[in-house]
Every structure is written in structure tokens, then in C-alpha cells.
Write a structure and sequence with these properties.
The structure is a homodimer. Chain A is α/β, with parallel strands linked by helices. In chain A, helix 15 (397-403) packs antiparallel against helix 35 (895-908). The mean pLDDT of chain A is 91. Chain A has an 8-stranded mixed sheet with strand order 15-25-24-17-18-19-20-16. Chain A has an 8-stranded parallel beta barrel with strand order 27-28-29-30-31-32-33-34, surrounded by 7 helices. Chain A has a 6-stranded antiparallel sheet with strand order 2-1-3-8-6-7, sandwiched between helices. At the A-B interface, helix 26, helix 28, helix 29, helix 31 and helix 32 of A face helix 26, helix 28, helix 29, helix 31 and helix 32 of B.
């Protein structure tokens, strides 16, 4: 087993396809090296070594130690320096790098190799004592924090007791004493003393000295990075991103190059295309005389890389690299072109300029938001860089969500009270209450999942991920488009504005001052994440308009011809049907008829129907309801013509329609109408109470107890269909019987529908009338006996909501008391009401599909669909595709995502 | 296709193995004829002919008509008479006969062939005009009722308008006018006139004449019997007995022999052994000068057949056949021996003596109650007549129920107020309110299924079957042990007393006078059906003592060695465990721990536990509960040693333990204990409310939310086990985690148990401690993912109650509003909570068994059981055997039935 992979000077043992072993960063450093791109030489300790490290009691095995030493020798040879050499010392950085980027979630130790012995040599080499002591100060801070404290598992009740804030206090005190505004204002002598003070403080707080031996520093650094795989933040991030714990991280040990060694030094982060919009221009930021972390941490507002990416009012006055050093910029552009051509995808790169020489420190596939993902996919397709299949694969179904995201209403925005402007880091519009602390944000949303919050911070750090996840939007005072906040928000499709320097945030008093105004925590603000504008108060939010996006339209065209699954919508009225058609729905998978009973006149007739004692009274009430229902169905069938419209007969327990017991007026009204006492009506309401209404008298059980209800609904549907047929409109109603658990239930209800159909045909003088009768599969028993049930059905539609409730034994209304805890514990990977539980509930679906198909022939044209809310969830859609359904159905706004997810599913086949 | 099968004079076309085609009666008439037993010659129209008859628009097909005529010619040849011949007329009876006896549920027409033309010849032949007119009167009554009215489908709102009661009124009027007490007192001349009056009344009521042509009578009779297959009573009976509608009935046309042609004539019904007790003596009843229906209808109290079966106080003064005619009796005994030897089973026979000559009219396997079935099976086994397998098959599992039936408490009975005594027709003791009308009985029990009723009637008729089914016991004033009431009660294992002639029943006033006392409908009486004694009021009822029955013990010994399934019991306390062991249980399949929390001290600690906010408070409360639980488990484990005891951890939703919201005292007490406001406690109670508690926070979900509860219960079980182990008592506790739907839930809970076990072992200084951890399979998802769950389980126990609730989507508490209707409609054959729904819920069980077995090896000793209430239902037990479970578990009193049903299931393999 090889533990260490070397790279440098155009030769590398690793390559981009070795991400599992070397991590993304390590693999790409090798790849870039092989591409003759200037990469500081170094080596990677593998992810497997990390596993061995844990198995070995958090110690490197002997072979790895030896291989590290050998690789270091190669680096020394190339650089002509020696690690720990007093005259010509080599310094290295020690960085993490997992299979998949986990930005900022693990640890880094830089400037390793600086010690009493090498400092003088470094000063001589660099000619800059101030720089060397600054680098040493950074090493002390990182090392004491990461290696001596965190890796040792030391925890503090009060975070101020940790080493890092104590060191920072020393620094702040020095700056105040010396009247320095910026770190760069501190003199070399002061920094030297500060380093001594730091070391003394480390000894005081942690009880031991900072190692002064370069190799000891290196082993400590490597171990700490390995251990950070199981750091709190890394675990939390993996939980959110659903990454496994057994990957481990690689460790990259790489020659230090310095962007902070003077004004001929710089550091930068760039994207080969704009990750926020997909604009194909080179996009990036840089800082003169700085280390890479300064850009990412958002402590200073960086310069734009080129003219194109200057942001008005932000960094338009600072010189771009293109202006400042056209030659180096040209070299960078050439590397950019090289990388995109090589990787066929947008790259996120880090570079450092040390004394006029350009070094590439990292390349990786760049994160992008949905808007950019769509545009890049189609642009690269048009550029011939990728094919259609790859274009589809470049966009995650959930990313489309962003294009369909609501925006602030442009009309209302004109008159809204603009507070300030920042960098537009996450598109879309969102409103919420200000919250200044991530932990508070997390708690508030946990208590009330509907809470709308905007997390407002100076900058964000990996510690804030939970709060960022909980908030609707993120607003920071510092940082650029490549800052932590921007990066994370982009990954999650969050509305985000960064670098909004007008904000003066006081965490202690929980207020934000902006241009003289004072906002308190809890005050409402509105973000336009597409333009970067912040408004006071609540600005109305409007729906998205993806149809105006040409890239989106092209992508959806490709998706449309790729997918096999049909996509229908759930709609209870003509307006929703029209909207869904605009989104590309081809049919209705679920029309709930009970919503139609809640109009003022209707509910009364419905109540009388339910509370009737005799079939005669009941039929009288039903006769009143018939015309309403017929009109509803007429409208829906017409709006969806010629596509199929699946209409479910009455489903909920009857007591849902009843007046509350204390509504004397309504009860008296009903009693009068029925000619009985109010007490009588009340008694009937009490009788209708159920202990477990979910498992009670509902669904087809109602239609079997009261066949006249099914008959009325069938009549309303079929009369509407007959009328439209006579008008020359093609209709395809599908009457769906809910909650069937037994073939004989369906047989019973089907007969009623067919009998009514025969009558309606005669009354309307029609020879044929299109309609089908089928059932929902939502009771576990129905899945298990689907072969029997299919004998009486022309279609099945899986009601996965109820199938989840009964299959898992979870009442949707009550599971809040334990289900979130279950997801936390990993008992379920996801909330099974959001994404179908594939093994369990999905297992029932699979059984039903197999059983149904075993008794149906192609000429039966039997079809299978799903109408639960899972029909709009990409993972679930993938499952439904795999299991062989014919269509999914979802709410109108989810239709494009469902269509796209269906195409993605077809690609996976 | 042959429609008609002849039998007579030692030759028969049919035989006993042709029951499906010829019906039971027809097949056995053929068999008896072939055995040279004297059977009046005749022929059988097949059941297939009945089907053809219905398909043919309720008409006999031409071939059947011709075959009938041919068969009649053979009968005429044997008898030397001619059908319709004025000089020497042949008369025939037309009787139904289905595959399986449906006593009295279909129609009969006797004396067919009597008409104006043949009456004089018959008078000459018989020398008894009175007899001939009486026979004619009977023909008119039957024919007008059965053929002209019922077969025509005529129905009356008031039953008094039907023809039969109107004819009976004419008869009653004549008797009153002539001062006749019995029918036999009416003179020939009066009877002749009565026949004329009858015919006029028939014409008046039904609008047409009684057919006077013998062949027209015959075709009418055959058609009416065929049609009676779909008569109301026949349909109702088939529904109760779960017989299919498509069998059809055969029709037997047979030479009439008359038991009422004078005092050298008689008729009788006998059983080759006593059907009520199993006593191996010949048992029967007879009446001089009577027709067979007189015995069955119970209109006259019959004589005993022999000395042995005389009932003290009933018919002990009337001469037995043995006394009256030893020669004929000897012939009958010889036939009886012949039949038992031939059929290897107890036969129910009918005979008629016509002018000193014995004729056998029927033999069939005799119905018997459970007590008799058990005794006969073992006696016949001992006699070498049958083998052990046959002996087991002779007893239906439900029949054992009767031996386990409660009895009146013998001690209390001594001091009870005895009303009267009748014939002990159905053993066991039962108490109930008097009800005098079957329809009322049916309705009352429908409204309140717990209603305890005793149906008290003069006699019962097939119209009473619904009422008999509804009542706990049956008491009649007339009839013998072979009367309708006795027959039906025996079949159903009902407590029954018949022929209780002291009863003077007034249906109109709804009172019963007995020895000067007057009881009203609704008054309580108590029946000792084993001795035939009726008591006033409620006599305490005590449990059965089957162990005193030697035949039962022998049968259970055979069952024990035959069965494969283990039988455990459900028991929550040591007393039940001891009782169940006496019944033969080998282990406990379910100990519910929640019942243990309802003691006065315990419930308080439980409530405090539930309402605690902190783990500290909760653990304090749990510490209080621990010793109680440990003591409970100690007792149960000890009582069941060395068998396994399956203990389920906490299952029900917590709110079941809470005080009602208006119990201020209890709430204040809890608040004080917890140091919070009462309002606070109330708020928590409201929070714990669930919409669908069945699908809510219960089962292992509690143990996962509050691991300390599982830990406490595990500790209580394991400490008890450790203590017993130290005392040298072998224990095998099986800790069962309820409501698992997901393997990770079980993994979570199993870990808690194992951790506690390690601690308990150490604390008790034990190297090993017997225990297993497994789960209930009661959530559909668990069945579908049983392979995953089995990885963490040492056993499964199917909780078929909840599996039915979730699998079918039926809340047990709410399904009363539709489930009975479902069973009526045939959507479910049986209530799925009583007998497992084999296709649906059983399908889930099957899936789970297959999946579990796919991942377990024999050396895992993984076992599968069932602990739902289905564990005591014979049909379900058969299913569980077939599907491969290892044991069933049921309530102590069901254990013998389960053991026996398990043996029966093993035989079917």
C-alpha cells in the first residue's frame, strides 16, 4: 500500500481520476502538474492513510512516515531548499482534501517549518523580517489552535477561553497601543515581540510549548488535519450533505508560496466562468500582498480580476489584475483556457503570485447556483465542449428550483425603502426577520419551521452552516463572491448578498446600523439576491418567470425528449390546470373533489347530506351538489383537453365537513333543514367522531356505505364529459377510487360508475364516452393484493402520502414529535414524507407494480402513476422511473423540476 | 349428462361418494340400497340438473323430464303400483338434498300423487279414509305453501296473510268446533270436508286451483324444491355457514311410506350414538302413528327409542320401541351396526314403520356437539374403527370451545331458584335476558353486541336461525333432542334446553308462565345446558374443567404429538401464566408491560416520568418504577420457568397514562411533585394529544425518544432474570421491541438492552445470562424490510392486530362504522380482526417470513411467532402453520384450541 503521492515539476504520481484516494485537491494538483501548469511541488497522503491513521490509534504508520520523508526529499530537490535548513529553509502548507469539497470544514496549517532555527534564514531569503514574523505569527495561531487544541479534543464552555481569541486579543491590544488600523501597519519589531507573546500565551493556556522542530510541526500538522475529518464542523457538514463518514480525507503537503511577501505578491481566487450567472467571462478576485485565506475569509474586500467582473460601487475603483499586470493576467487566462478545455467544466481555481511569479494552488470543479448551472450547461453544449447528455447531467434537479424561485415584485421594489447594496451572491428574492446569530437562527426554525429569517453577519464561517441552512437568506458585511457565505449559499441555492460594507453590526446589542438607520434583531428586511439590494420591511414576493430564460428553455427541450416518465399535475381548478400546462404538465394526476365542497352553499348541502338519516334526504342534498360539481369538472376537463384528468372521488372522513360543536347557528340551520332537533344533529356529530380518523370511515368506505355519493360524483364527471364531447372537445376523465384495500371494494365502486355511465350515454345520445375507472394504491394491503385489484382497474395511482402513513405507521399530523429526531439519529436518511422511503414504502410500490404487471397485457393499456407529494421530489422521481411507473404528478410549480428529474432518471438507466 | 339416478331393491346408480352430484341424502340412499338396507325405492335429480334448471329459466330440461319418467317406471315396477293409477296408486315424496346437510332450510312436498282420481284407490288400499284425507290435507298445505306461493315468490307484509296460517286457522276452527284436542281426534268425514275447505281457500287466496294431476304435482314439486336453493332461509344459512351459492341441491323423489297409517305404523329419528354426550349407546326417538316431520318439528314429545335413552320426567312413561316391538328394534339395531361399520362414523338416521315393516328413509353423518365429538372420536379410536389421524379430524377446533365453555357455578346452583327442567340439548352454562322473538334478538345484539339473551320459544323453526345465532342460549317448550332447536344448537355449540313443557309462552303479551310464576321478556334466567335445568335470575358462571374429561385428555395427547407449531400464551401476571401452563402452554408469547403501570403508586410515578422536562426528573421517576417492574418480571419468569417469556417494552401512546384534564387533584399532585404550575402540566397534556394515536408517538418511538425508559425496563427484566439464575431457576426472557418499522430503530434499542445486560451481569457476578432481543412485526414497513430488521433480531413475533390496522388501514376503534357492512357485502369473508386476512395481512406475514429466513441460518436459532389475537383462531393458526411460524400465542383459555388447531394444521400438510 502506497501512502504518499508526489507531484512537482511537470511530473505527478496522481491524477484527476484518483479523487477517491487523493481527495479532489490532491488529485487535481497532480493533474495540473502533469499539464505543465505551475504548481508548487508537494505530495499527498492518501485517504486510505487517514483510515489507517484512525485504526492505528491516531498515529501515522511507519511506512507513511518513511514515504513522507522520501517525498519531502524530492520536493527539496526541485526547490533547491531544505525543510528545516537554517540557511535555505523550505516551508510547507498542510491542507485537507476529501473526495468532495467540504469548504472550510476541515483544518489547515500553513508556514510549517518556520522555527527559531529557520527564521533567520527566511529573513535573509525574503529580505523582509516583517513578513517572516507575520508568517510565524500565523503559524503559531494555526498550530496552537488546530494541532495543540482542537486535535487534542480540548473544549471550552466559553469560547473566549480558547487559544485563538486569546491570541487575537494580544494582537488587537498591540494594534491599539501602536495605533495601527491594519495588520500590515505593524512593524517587524513589534511582530517579533508579538510572536514571543503568542508563544508565552500558548504555554500559559495549553501548558506546553509550541514545537520548535520543523518535523515535529509537520507530523503534528498532518495528524491534526487527519483528525479534523471527525471534527464537529466536518461531521455536521456531512450530515447536511449526506456524505458518508468512512471516506476519510487526504492531506496535501505543499511548498509554501507567499502572496504576502510584498507588493509584487498577490493571491487570488477565480472561476473560469461566473458561478452566479453562468456568464462565460473569466471571473475572479485578487488581493495584493495577501495570503489566500484573506480572500476566502472575506476580511478584506478584494479587487476584481478583470474589467469585466468589476462590481459597480464595490471594487470598481481598485485595479484589476488585467490592468495591473497584463502579462501575468494573460498567463492566467491561458491556464484558465487550458483547464476548461481539459476538464470540460467550469473550474474554481486558487493562485498566488510570489514575487512576480504565478503559482496555481488548486483547481476543482466550481460550485455554481442553478441559474449559472443551466447557462453553463447550454453554453458549453453550444460551444461543442460537452454533449446533450452531459449538459443534462450538469444541472441538479433541485438547482432548477432557483430559476423557479420567487423574486421580489419588481413593481413593488421600485417604491420599496432601499437600505443598501452588496454583492449579488445568491439569486432570487426573499424576506425575513433579521437574526444575528446562527445558533439562534437554528433554534428559532426548529421551534417554528415556518419562521422566515435573514441571517445577518459580518462574515460567515464554517461554524455558521446550521444557521445558514435555517435562514431564508444570508446577508454579510464583508467578503466577496468567493467568500464562505457566497460559496455555501450558492451550493444550497440560498438567496445571498455579501460584502455589504455599509452594515455596522453590533452583536452584543443585537442591532444593525446602516446609513444612520438602526434595525433591531427581529425587524423585517427584504433581499434581492439577483441584484444585491437590501430593502427595509417586507417587499411583496412574486413568482418566477423561467420562460424568459433561453438557456432554461433549451435545457427543458432536451429534458423533454430524454425523459420516459410522463409528468402530470395535481390541480383542483381550471386556473391551476392552465398554469401547470404552461410549466409543461401533460394531464392531471389528481383532482381532489372534496375541496370543491367548501363553498358557502355547497358546504351546507354537504353537511345535510352527511347528517341525513334517510337515503331520501341524502339524495335531495346530493342533487343540490351535482350541478356545482359538474361545473367544476367541466372547467377542469376543458382546460386540460385532450390530456387525461384523474378525478378522485370523496376521500376525507365526513367529520371534516361538519360544523364545530359550538357553532349553534349552523347546527340549528341544519336541524331545521332536516326537520330534527339540534340535539339530534349534535348527537350525530359526536357519533362521527373517530379515534384515528386516518384509519377510519373515509375514502371508498364512504362510497360503499353511501353508494349514492359515488353515483352523484360519477354523474357530475360524466355529464361534464358528455357535454364537452358533444361540443367537440376531447376529454379523458379518469375516475379514481381512493383508499381501496380490497379488490371487492373497487369492484363495488366500479360497478356504480359504469352503471351511471351507461345512463349518461343514453341521456346524451352518445355511442361512446371516454372515461376510465381506476384506483389509488395507498393502503399497504392494496399493494400486497395488487394483482387482484388490477383485475377491476384501468389504472393505478400510488398515493404515497397515505402509503407512507400506513406503511410506516406514521401519522403525518403527529409524527412531528419524533420524526425530526429520527432523521437526526439517521434512522431515516430523509423525512419519508419529503422523499419516498425507497426500501420500505418503495418496497410496497414495487410489489404492487410487479403484481399489477403480472396480470395486465400491453393491449390493456393499463397505466401506473403517482400522485403523492413525492411526485415532485427528484430522488423519488428517480425511484418511480426505475420501478416502471408511467407518470408522476405534482403541484404546478414543481412540474419543470419533475420533468427535468425524469430526464435525469432516464439518463441513469 | 345424466340427470336422474335410480335406487331401489338392492340396486342403485348412485353411491355415498357421489355427494357433490346427488347431495348427501341422495348419495346415501343409493349407498344404503346397495347395502341391502330396506330403502323405499326412488330416484335423485342431480345438483347439476338444478344448475341447468336455473340456466333454463327455472324449467327442467327435456332430457331430465324423460329420465324422470323412466326412473318412475322402474319404481312402479318394484312397488307393483303406478303413479296416478286410480286402483293401485303410487305416492311419492319430493325432498331436497344438498352436498352438505342444511337442515330444514329448503322445501319438501310429500304425498305427491294424491288427487281426486287416486284418493278412492288409496282408501281402498289403506282401508283408512281418515288417514288418506289427513295425507291429502298435508299435501294441500305443503303444495300451496311451497309450490304455489313460495316458489312463485309471493311475499306478504303480514305473515298471517300467507296461505299456510290461513289453512291452519281452518283446522283450528274445526278442532274447536268439534272439540278435538289432537289432530288425530278429527274424523275422516270432517277431514274430507276440511280438504274441500282447504282447496277453496287456496283458490281464494292464491287465485288458482291446486293441481289435480299427479304429474303436474310432481313437476311443480321438483321445481319448487330446486327453487328453494335460493330461498331466503337457504341463503341466510349459507351465509352463516360460509357455503357457496353455486352448489345447487339435488331432488329426491321417493316412494312414500307412512308412519301414520295406524298404530302398527311409526316414525323415528335416531343417532347411532348420543349426539349430545357421545355415549356409545344407540340413541333415538320415535312416535307411533306419525309422519317424520312430527318428530323433527317437535310438535309432539316423542318416545325414547330404547330404555337407555329415556329421559327421566320427560318420556320415561312412554313405551320405547325396544319394549313395544323388540323384533323391529333388533332389525333397526342391526342396521345401525351395519351403517356405523360401513361409514366408520356416527350416523343420523330416519326410519318409518309402515304396517309393521321397517323402512330407512335417510342416513347421514350425524351432527354432534363438541363434547360428543371428542368422546366419539376417542371411543371409535379405541374400538379400532378409526385411526388417530381420523380421530383428530373428527373434532373441529371450535368444538373444543364447548368443553372449555363456562358452566353455572355448581355451588351457586344448589341455592339457585330452579324454575323447571327440560332436555339437555346443548351443554354448558349461560345466563341472559329472556327474548321471545328471533328478529328482536337479532336486532338487540346488532345494536349491542354484548347483549346477553336467552331465546325462549315454543319450538324453533328455520326462520329462527338468526335469533338463535344472536342468543347465548336457547330454551324451547316443545321438541326433543332431534328437534330443530337441538340440532342447530348442537351444530353451533350453543347452550340449549328443549322440550321444557312447563313453559307457557304468550308471545303477544311477551310473558312466560312457569309453574305459577310469570317472567317478562327482559327478565334474567340461567340455563344449565348440561343438565337441562332452568333457573330464575343470574346464577354465577364458572370456568370449564376439561381436565376431568378423559376423552379430551387423550385427544389432546394425540394433538400434542401431532402438532408442529408451539403454543404459548399471552399473560401479564404469574396467575395467568400458571393457568396457561395447566392448559398446556409452553411459554409466554406476550407480556404487556404497560398494564403493570396502572397500580395506584405506579401510575403516579409513570405520570411524573411522562411529564418530566428533564432527564433527571425522569430518571428519578423511573427509579421508583424499577422495583415494581422487577418484582412483576420475577414472578412471571419464575412461574413459566424454564420456558421462554416474551416481554414487550412500553408500547401505548403516553397520553393513555395521563390523568383526564378535569382531574384537578391529580394534576395538582403531579405539578407539586415536579415543582411546576398545574397550568404547565395541563399544557404538556394538551401537547401530548394526538390526532391519530395509533400512528403516533408510541412503541419503540418512545424508547428512542426516552432511552432511559427502555434501559429501566431492560434492567427490571434482566435483574429479575439474574436473581432467578442465582437462585438456580432456569429463565429465558425474550425482550421484544414493539412497533419497529426500520432496522435502525431495533439496532438503537437492542444496543440499550445489551449495554444494560453487560452491567447487570457484572453487578450480579454472572458469566452468562440467558436473554434474547427481538421485535414485533406489526408495521407493514417492517414486513417489507424484514431481511434488514432480522439482522438485529433474535426473534420476530407478528403483532397481527396492529398489522391488520395498518395493513388494511382499519382503526380497530373506528371500523365498527363500516366493517360489519363490509362483511355483509362479502368484501371481507370474515372480520379481519377475528380471523387473519390471509391474502392481505397474511401476504405481509408471508413476505416477512421469507425475507427473515433468507438471512438467517439454522444455527442462528431465529424463531418466528405470533402474539396477536389471531393466535387463538383456528383458521389463522392453520395459516400460521402453513406459512412456517414456530409458535402461536393466545389467551390462556384459548390454549387448548390453539394446540388442537395446530395439530389439525399439521395433518393438512
Amino acid at each position: 500500500m502506497k501512502h504518499v503521492y508526489f507531484f512537482g515539476d511537470g511530473k505527478a504520481e496522481g491524477s484527476a481520476d484518483m479523487k477517491n484516494l487523493l481527495g479532489g485537491k490532491g488529485a487535481n494538483l497532480g493533474e495540473m502538474t502533469s499539464l505543465n501548469i505551475p504548481v508548487p511541488p508537494g505530495f499527498t497522503l492518501t485517504t486510505e492513510t487517514n483510515i489507517v491513521f484512525f485504526e492505528n490509534g491516531n498515529k501515522l504508520p511507519g511506512e507513511a512516515v518513511q514515504e513522507t520523508k522520501d517525498a519531502m526529499a524530492k520536493v527539496e530537490a526541485i526547490m533547491g531548499k531544505k525543510f528545516g535548513d537554517p540557511e535555505n529553509p523550505l516551508l510547507v502548507g498542510v491542507r485537507s482534501g476529501a473526495r468532495q469539497s467540504m469548504p472550510g470544514m476541515m483544518e489547515t496549517v500553513l508556514n510549517v517549518g518556520l522555527c527559531s532555527a529557520t527564521i533567520p534564514g527566511m529573513i535573509k531569503l525574503s529580505g523582509d523580517a516583517r513578513f517572516v514574523y507575520d508568517a510565524y505569527r500565523r503559524l503559531i495561531t494555526m498550530y496552537s489552535d488546530v494541532v495543540m487544541e482542537k486535535a487534542e479534543g480540548i473544549e471550552y464552555e466559553d469560547e473566549e477561553q480558547a487559544i485563538r481569541p486569546q491570541l487575537e486579543k494580544l494582537m488587537d491590544a498591540l494594534k491599539e497601543k501602536k495605533g495601527c488600523k491594519e495588520d500590515t501597519d505593524i512593524s517587524a519589531g513589534d511582530l517579533k515581540q508579538l510572536c514571543e507573546d503568542y508563544k508565552a500565551k500558548v504555554k500559559e493556556v495549553l501548558g506546553k510549548d509550541l514545537p520548535d522542530d520543523p518535523w515535529e510541526q509537520l507530523w503534528g500538522g498532518i495528524g491534526a488535519v487527519f483528525q479534523s475529518w471527525f471534527g464537529k464542523r466536518a461531521i455536521a457538514y456531512r450530515r447536511i450533505e449526506k456524505l458518508p463518514d468512512d471516506w476519510g480525507t487526504a492531506v496535501n503537503v505543499q511548498t509554501m508560496v507567499f502572496g504576502n511577501m510584498g507588493d509584487d505578491c498577490a493571491t487570488g481566487v477565480a472561476f473560469t466562468r461566473d458561478p452566479a450567472t453562468g456568464d462565460p467571462n473569466f471571473y475572479g478576485e485578487w488581493l495584493v500582498n495577501a495570503q489566500g485565506e484573506d480572500v476566502v475569509a472575506g476580511i478584506r474586500t478584494p479587487n476584481a480580476l478583470n474589467q469585466h467582473c468589476k462590481q459597480p460601487g464595490q471594487n470598481d475603483m481598485l485595479p484589476s489584475l488585467e490592468e495591473k499586470n497584463p502579462e501575468l493576467y494573460a498567463q492566467l487566462v491561458s491556464i484558465r483556457d487550458n483547464l476548461e478545455a481539459h476538464y470540460h467544466d467550469m473550474q474554481d481555481i486558487e493562485f498566488t503570485i510570489e514575487k512576480g511569479r504565478l503559482w496555481m494552488l488548486q483547481t476543482r470543479t466550481g460550485k455554481r447556483n442553478g441559474l449559472a448551472a443551466v447557462r453553463m450547461a447550454i453554453d458549453m453544449l453550444n460551444e461543442g465542449m460537452i454533449d446533450e447528455v452531459t449538459a443534462l447531467k450538469r444541472v441538479k434537479p433541485v438547482q432548477l428550483d432557483e430559476l423557479l424561485h420567487p423574486m421580489l415584485d419588481p413593481a413593488a421594489e421600485k417604491n420599496a425603502n432601499k437600505l443598501t447594496k452588496g454583492l449579488a451572491a445568491g439569486p432570487g428574492g426573499s424576506i425575513g426577520k433579521i437574526v444575528l446569530n446562527s445558533e439562534r437562527a437554528r433554534k428559532m426554525v426548529k421551534e417554528n419551521p415556518k419562521e422566515q429569517l435573514i441571517l445577518v453577519r459580518l462574515e460567515t464561517s464554517p461554524e455558521d452552516v446550521d444557521g445558514m441552512s435555517a435562514a431564508k437568506g444570508i446577508l454579510t458585511a464583508r467578503g466577496g463572491m468567493t467568500s464562505h457565505a457566497a460559496l455555501v449559499a450558492r451550493g444550497w441555492g440560498k438567496i445571498c448578498i455579501v460584502g455589504c460594507s455599509d452594515l455596522d453590526i453590533n452583536y452584543r446589542e443585537r442591532i444593525v446600523k446602516v446609513k444612520g438607520r438602526t434595525l433591531k434583531e427581529g425587524d423585517w428586511i427584504s433581499l434581492n439576491g439577483t441584484k444585491g439590494i437590501v430593502y427595509e420591511g417586507k417587499v411583496p414576493v412574486v413568482d418566477a418567470d423561467p420562460e424568459s430564460n433561453e438557456w432554461y428553455k433549451k435545457l427543458m427541450d432536451i429534458a423533454e425528449k430524454t425523459k420516459r416518465l410522463g409528468v402530470r399535475t395535481n390541480a383542483d381548478n381550471p386556473a391551476d390546470a392552465v398554469l401547470a400546462r404552461q410549466f409543461g404538465a401533460q394531464g392531471i394526476g389528481l383532482t381532489r373533489t372534496e375541496h370543491m365542497f367548501f363553498g358557502e352553499d355547497r358546504i351546507k348541502a354537504m353537511r345535510i347530506m352527511i347528517l341525513s338519516d334517510t337515503a331520501e334526504q341524502r339524495e335531495k342534498a346530493l342533487a343540490k351538489l351535482l350541478p356545482y360539481q359538474r361545473d367544476d369538472f367541466y372547467g377542469i376537463l376543458k382546460a386540460m383537453s385532450p390530456y387525461a384528468v384523474t378525478i378522485r372521488t370523496l376521500d376525507p372522513p365526513l367529520h371534516e365537513f361538519l360544523p364545530p360543536m359550538d357553532d349553534e347557528e349552523k347546527i340549528n340551520e341544519i336541524a331545521t333543514e332536516l326537520g330534527v332537533d339540534a340535539a339530534n344533529v349534535k348527537e350525530r356529530i359526536v357519533q362521527l367522531h373517530e379515534f384515528n380518523p386516518m384509519l377510519g370511515h373515509r375514502g371508498c368506505r364512504l362510497g360503499i356505505s353511501m353508494p349514492e355519493v359515488t353515483a352523484m360524483q360519477a354523474r357530475a364527471i360524466l355529464e361534464a364529459a358528455a357535454q364537452l364531447t358533444r361540443e367537440g372537445v376531447e376529454v379523458n376523465p379518469e375516475i379514481m377510487i381512493p383508499l381501496v384495500g380490497n379488490a371487492r371494494e373497487l369492484e363495488n365502486q366500479t360497478k356504480i360508475v359504469h352503471d351511471v355511465a351507461e345512463k349518461v350515454k343514453k341521456e346524451n345520445d352518445l355511442d361512446t364516452l371516454n372515461y376510465k375507472v381506476g384506483t389509488m394504491i395507498e393502503v399497504p394491503r392494496a399493494a400486497v393484493t395488487a394483482d387482484e385489484i388490477a383485475q377491476h382497474a384501468e389504472f393505478f395511482s400510488f398515493g404515497t402520502n397515505d402509503l407512507t402513513q400506513m406503511g410506516c405507521g406514521f401519522s403525518r399530523d403527529d409524527s412531528g414529535s419524533f420524526l425530526p429526531h429520527y432523521v437526526d439519529l439517521g434512522i431515516y436518511d430523509k423525512d419519508p414524507f419529503q422523499s419516498i422511503d425507497q426500501a420500505g414504502v418503495g418496497g410496497l410500490v414495487k410489489i404492487a407494480v410487479e403484481k399489477a404487471k403480472s396480470v395486465k397485457k400491453p393491449e390493456d393499456h393499463f397505466h401506473l402513476g403517482v400522485c403523492g407529494e413525492h411526485g415532485g421530489d427528484p430522488d423519488s422521481i428517480y425511484f418511480f422511473h426505475k420501478v416502471g411507473l408511467d407518470y408522476v404528478s405534482c403541484s404546478p410549480f414543481r412540474v419543470p423540476i419533475a420533468r427535468f428529474a425524469a430526464a435525469r432518471a432516464a439518463l441513469e438507466d
